[in-house]
Amino acid sequence: MSRLAEYRKLEQQLAAQLAELESMKSNSTLKREMEFESKLRALLGEYGFSLRNVINILDPEPAHRIPVTVAPRAARKARVVKVYRNPNSGEVIETKGGNHRQLKEWKNEFGTDVVESWRTQ
């Protein structure tokens, strides 16, 4: 993007933000909030308090300081050892998961249902 195009884009964004700012200035709710804030700050200054002092007076123990008890997670159930015995070769495989290399080869060669029927445990 050229510098001129970037400048024009930023100029348009600025104009839009200025228009939004002007519309907010005429908002009666905003005017009341600003008036309240200025009176509150003047009152705090008169008595030597800060906003933090007022917050601590109103809520001495905010929610972020209160200890929360969290229920412990349930421990994951241990996987069961599965034993497969190939009736053709007599070879035995013990595994806890289905990611065993030889077991995958058997399932590709003989089919999943057949290999599962070889399961002894």
How would you sum up this structure, described in words?
- This protein has 121 residues and is mainly α.
- The protein folds into two domains: 56 residues; 36 residues, no CATH class.
- The protein is built from five helices and two strands, in the order αααββαα.
- A two-stranded antiparallel ribbon has the order 1-2.
- It is elongated, with a radius of gyration of 36 Å.
- The two termini are 68 Å apart.
- The mean pLDDT is 87.
Question: Could you provide a short overview of the structure?
Answer:
With 121 residues, the chain is mainly alpha-helical.
Number of H/I helices: 5
Number of domains: 2
The description of the largest β-sheet is: 2 strands, antiparallel
Mean pLDDT: 87
Gross morphology: elongated
**Strand-residue proportion:** 5-15%
What is the helix fraction of residues, given as a range?
55-70%
Strand order of the largest sheet: 1-2
Structural class: mainly alpha
Runs in which pLDDT lies below 50 for 5 or more consecutive residues are none
Series of H and E elements = HHHEEHH
Radius of gyration: 36 Å
